[in-house]
């Protein structure tokens, strides 16, 4: 009798494992290229700055090196992401999503200074503050901001069809202030492939 009960438990446990493992979603894997300005390595540089990128569905890692002999500034509150449909989204840039969104909530997003010969690194995210105005003025919800993090692209099939984005393009606009003169650096990326 004891063996029959154990076998029944094993069968039930096995069925539950199959059910739960069948209900998981495999993440999409994206392949990107920088098509304008053209680059094989997701890098760009001119006489003044160097940019390096590492896109992912959730965020885009960006490194900016100042090649000038004076400090420059990334004008963070004017940075934009233009999606594959041409819709413009404000972006935040930094290391901590909650902190960066909180700066927007407080209407205080200072430019990020890059000293001569130095480099800053950080992540770019879509600025959800503009879309989730329900949080405005509510200090108690700031710890829940990460819950509202909006990815650039679907991470899993239940978030949307990533395969439809294959061969589409998106843009980043990163404004750099050179002693009061702002240059908008525009980068066009292509989604080369999407695999589930």
How would you explain this protein's 3D organization?
The protein has 196 residues and is of the alpha+beta class. The chain has a single domain (28-195), classed as Immunoglobulin-like, CATH 2.60.40. It is built from 2 helices and 12 strands, in the order H-E-E-E-E-E-E-E-E-H-E-E-E-E. It has helices at residues 2-22, 97-105, and strands at 29-36, 38-39, 43-45, 49-55, 60-66, 72-74, 80-82, 88-94, 112-114, 119-126, 169-178, 181-195. Strands 1, 2, 3, 4, 5, 6, 7, 8, 9, 10, 11 and 12 form a 12-stranded antiparallel sheet that branches. A hairpin with a 4-residue loop joins strand 4 (49-55) and strand 5. It is elongated and about 80 Å long.
Q: Mean pLDDT, nearest integer?
A: 81
Q: What's the number of structural domains?
A: 1
Determine the number of helices (DSSP H or I, runs of at least 4 residues): 2
Write down the CATH class: Mainly Beta
Using only CA atoms, what is the Rg? Answer: 22 Å
> Poorly predicted ranges (pLDDT <50, ≥5 residues)?
131-136
Which key terms come to mind for this protein?
196 residues, 12 strands
Question: How does the SSE layout of this entry go?
Answer:
Blueprint: H1 2-22, E1 29-36, E2 38-39, E3 43-45, E4 49-55, E5 60-66, E6 72-74, E7 80-82, E8 88-94, H2 97-105, E9 112-114, E10 119-126, E11 169-178, E12 181-195
Antiparallel strand pairs: 1-2, 1-12, 3-4, 4-5, 5-10, 6-9, 6-11, 7-8, 7-11, 8-10, 11-12
Quick rundown:
It contains 2 helices and 12 strands, in the order αββββββββαββββ. With 196 residues, it is of the alpha+beta class.
């Amino acid at each position: 009798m004891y063996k029959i009960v154990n076998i029944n438990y094993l069968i039930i446990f096995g069925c539950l494992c199959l059910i739960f493992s069948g209900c998981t979603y495999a993440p999409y894997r994206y392949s990107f290229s920088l098509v304008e300005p053209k680059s094989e390595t997701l890098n760009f540089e001119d006489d003044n700055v160097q940019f390096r990128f590492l896109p992912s569905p959730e965020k885009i890692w960006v490194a900016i090196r100042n090649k000038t002999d004076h400090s420059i500034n990334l004008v963070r509150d004017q940075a934009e992401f233009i999606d594959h449909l041409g819709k413009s989204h404000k972006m935040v840039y930094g290391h901590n999503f909650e902190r960066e969104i909180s700066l927007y909530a407080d209407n205080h997003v200072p430019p990020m200074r890059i000293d001569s010969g130095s480099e800053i690194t950080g992540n770019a995210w879509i600025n959800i503050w503009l879309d989730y105005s329900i949080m405005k003025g509510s200090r108690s919800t700031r710890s829940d901001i990460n819950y509202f993090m909006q990815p650039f692209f679907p991470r899993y099939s239940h978030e949307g069809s990533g395969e439809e984005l294959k061969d589409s393009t998106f843009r980043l606009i990163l404004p750099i202030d050179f002693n009061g003169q702002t240059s908008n650096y525009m980068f066009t990326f292509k989604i080369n492939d999407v695999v589930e």
